[in-house]
Specification:
Blueprint: H1 8-27, H2 34-43, E1 48-49, H3 50-57, H4 68-72, E2 84-87, E3 90-93, H5 95-115, H6 121-148
Antiparallel strand pairs: 1-3, 2-3
Helix pairs in contact: 1-5
Length: 150
Amino acid sequence: MGGMDKPIGYWLKHLHNLIEEQFGATLGDLGLDRRQWQILNLLSGGTRSRSEIEQALAPFWPDGIPQLDAALGGTDGLATPGWVRYDGDALTLTEQGRAVQGRAAERVGETRRLLLRGLTSEQYAETVRILSVMAGHLEAALAGRAAGSK
């Protein structure tokens, strides 16, 4: 299958879907989805407030709105197995949570190595830089359009 016969939008969406599917396959037996992994990973660096978590993870959630209550609470949430502890507005990993985060981090590392196989760190950095530039062009155009309509 040739890569150049499909537009960038196809590859961005296709890669996104494959990453989501791979996360499900990699972390599913730990009882984690990609969003919950992101929360555990963020909390592995220390205690965070709800607003800090929401701000850090907003770009990765549909519509930019983190559904923290769904990820943390309920029967499938991170608090239920005792992985995350609440202290008022602060969230902290428990000892169990740290153990699960460590196991998940190993698997995520394997997925990252699989994703980047055959690419140099320079190629990866350049790909990210190019995508960032493209996004910046569209953000600026949309911001200009929004400012012009006011």
